[in-house]
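Limitations
The structure tokens in this dataset are predictions for the assembled complex, not deposited experimental models. Users should treat interface geometry with appropriate caution, especially where small molecules or nucleic acid strands are included. An illustrative entry is reproduced here so readers can see what is and is not provided.
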Amino acid sequence: MIYLQEKLDFLLDKYSVDTKAELKDCKTAVIDGVVTPILSHRLERRFIELKNIVQGGTLFGVSVMRVARIVNKNANIFDELYRELDLCRFILGKEIVAITAVQNENTLNVIATAETGIVCTIEISATLSDGEKPKDKHEIISQRGIACDVVVDTQLKQDSIYFFGEENKKFTDVDFELYGLSVEDIAVVRSAFQIAQNKSADLMLTFDKELKLMVEKAKESVKTGERQVI
Amino acid sequence: MKPLKIAMMSMTHGHTRKYYQTLMDNPKLDWVAVATANDEVKEIFLNSVKGIPCYDSEIEMLDAHPEIEAVVLASENSEHLRQMKLCAERGIHILSMKIPTFDMEEYDEMIDIVEKNNLVCQIELEMHYNPVIVRMKEMIANGEIGKIKSFNATNITLSPVWAFPWQGVPEKSYGKRVSIKDGDHRFRGGALCDHPHIFDMIRHMTGSDFESVYAEVAPNIRPDIEEEDMLSVIGKMKDGTIFSLDPSWSKMEERLKVPGPGWEVFPKRMEVNITLNGEKGTLMADCFGPNVYHNGLPNDRYTVQYTYFDEWIGLIDEFVDNIRNNKTPLINLRWHRRTIEAMNAVYESIQTGKFVKF
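Predicted assembly:
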């Protein structure tokens, strides 16, 4: 976290942002003294571009958003649901109005209905071994086109560089200013920076409250076996 | 072994052309004749296959060829019961398309007809003869995945309604005209009716039965068809396995009358992907790959060219073996009944907005 804070301080200084921002962990930062959820996934470039495609008119008549996310065994599946529900809202630019869920221990499947009847399916499992990177896929299907963060006819994401030597290596570098950080860590730093720069902590707190309510509704659906209206 | 004398009826089903090569090449078969349902499919058949007698009437074909031992019912769902009766009267074994019927009374009548006449009736669920599926079943049996916790699968394709118009007619696809839900202009009979495989495969892979099903229909990506084309299904099996199934027509197509090159608008016309999350890890499978790619004729569009589509070889081998050795098909009418019930439950859930419990 110290290294990420150094990168955040670098951005704050470079762009003359006076707001104080201190990273607590990968999910929260203290922005001007207020503990703030940073929703860092929103700053991953793939999601920004998917949002631009969906909301900028490249797709027309969105019908379905399909999400699959597989994470480490020790992860909390409802924390992952929080993230994915936020991504559905962020990318579609629509509110979630109802949620239905089934759970089997560390696996969770959800159908969330968004405004205008768009159906979001979210498949989550915490089944990967320690050290294995999360696998995920986000796909939006519309009358005029499909947008996805995984290339057609593949199951997994590609990396930018593969090195096959005595020790095999691979790299995905996506940010010149923050060179050396992982995609996820870049999003953490960029997110805290953007909240400080835009003074948008209050908005993040509102999103957090709404998302926590949706997650509670999903838990309620698991318990009752019924669709929950938000 | 004496080659099985086989014929085909109707030739209106989307899978019709999948049989051409197998019926010509398989030494265990003697392809005797076909009966076509209309002039359009007759012309397509005659342009595709040479040397097989083609009749305008099923009765005419059966009368002319009393040697026929088995028939592939390559027809719309609404014709299956009538054709099964026709075959049963003459003691002819049946290879049925993937949906015998959605009407459970009709379904039970089919079981009765087949059993009373001691016929083999095999349902065409060709995914069981796919090598990726075979590998998955083997890994499950070996305990490599451990107890399955969730089964998530896609069976998504382009829509066949332009090439096979009956699939866009609720009465011919679903068997009758039933509104998909109150206040919705669409009817049952669309994408769901085209995609039973994953509802069947979860039963095989978990060894369990459906406990509950919940489904929602999304806005159509083809607003001008009167059936559903996008839907999502979740639920639970009796052993606790949860599932998420996508049986949509989510890949857009050019509206061709005869399937062929240039059918795809989205580069990939079809996908069956299965993810099994188990106690010992996650298995992700693409049943149709690896493939090759091109952006050549006719549309200069980036396109996935499949490299494997041989499921019908194993399917026909099993069918011949079942008839010659008096065996019960892996996918027989009794086994398949629950799969059809689960698909009907999807429609019921869409209509009621609630889980359907079994």
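Some entries come with short summary sentences. For this one: The radius of gyration of chain B is 20 Å.
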